[in-house]
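Model it.
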Amino acid sequence: MNNSLTYYSHVNFTRWISSIISPIILISCAVGNTVSFIVLLRPRLRRQTTSIYLAVLCIAEMGTCYTGLLRQFLLDAFNLDIRTINSFSCRTHIYLTYMFLRSTTVLLALVTLQRYFYVSQRAICSVISTCLQLFCLFLFVCLAELHLFVFYDLTYSDTRPRTVHIPFECTVDKIRYQSYYKFRSEIYPKLTLFIYTIIPLAVIIIGNILLIRTVRQASKRSHSKAHKKRSVTRMLYAVSILYTLLTSPASIFLAIAPPSYQLAPTFRLQWTLLRLLFYFCHSVNFILFCASGTLFRQEFILFLNSKCGFPRQWINEENFNRSIGTITKYEEETINRSIRYKNYKDYNSNRGEGPSPKVNKQISTETQPFSL
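Modeled.
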C-alpha cells in the first residue's frame, strides 16, 4: 500500500513539473532556433560554412524537441500518447525521434572538425562539400536507426506481465523478436553510448582544444582575420560546452539503467528531470549565439532593423566596420570620393586654381556624418 502511494505521488509530481516546464522549453526552442536559422543564413554569415552547419543544427534541435519533448508533454498534461494512436504513428514517431536525436550529436562533432580544418587551413571548405557532408551524415543516421521503424509496433509491454487489462505499448514484441529484443536491451544502449555519446564528445572536446590553440596562433599572425574567425568560433565553443554538460547525464542514465528499473518509483522522477535538462540544451542556441558571437549580434540587429523598420542612425558604423575587419561598400565609396577630391585639388593647384566653393560644400556635406 505504501509503495503504491509512493509511486502515484512520484507520478503526479513529475507530471506537474513536466506540464509547467515543457511548454516554456518548446516555445523558446521554436522562437530561438527559427530566428537563429534565419540570421545564420544571412549573406555575411553564410559565407562561412560553419554558419551553414549551425543553421542545420537549429533545425535538428527543433525536430528533437518537437518529437521527444512534445510527446511527453501531451502524455503528462493530457494523457495523450502519439505513439499509441496506431501502428504507423508508433513506428514513425519513434524513428523520427531517434533520427533527430542522433543527428544533433553527430552534427556537432562534424562542425567541430570542419571548423578546426578551416581555421588551421588543412582543408578547403566550400558550400558544395558542406552540403555533401550533411547529406552523408543524415543518410548514415537514417540507415543506422531504420531498425526502429522495422521492429517497433503496438504490442504487449516488455516490462509488465501480459494480461488483457494492460494496454498495448509502442515497443518490441520480445516473444516474436527474441534476438532483436536482446540486441535492443543489452547491446544497443551500450553501442549508442559509444557511437553517439563517447566518440562525439571526445571529438568535440579535443577539437575545441585544438581550435583554441590554432586561433591563438592565428591571432598573432593576423589580427583582422583572426577576429572574424573568433566570432564564429566562440559560438561553436558555447554550443559545444553546454551540450556536453547538459546532455551527457541523460545519455549515460539511459545506457546503464536496465529495463526493469523503469518500474521503480524513483525512475520517473529521475528521468523527467534529466529529460528536461536534456531538452533545455536544445532551446538556448539563440542566447548562446548572441552572448558569444559579435557578428551574430550585429546581423541580428540588422535583421530587426530591416523587418521592423527601426531607425538605423544609432548604429555606430565605425565600430561596426572595425569589428567585421573588412571594407564595406560605404567605406569604399567614401575612400573613392576622397581620392577623386584629392586628385581634383592637385589638378587645380597645378593650374593655380582652388576647388570651387560648390564642390567644397558638396564634399563636406557628404562626408560630415562619418570620418575615416
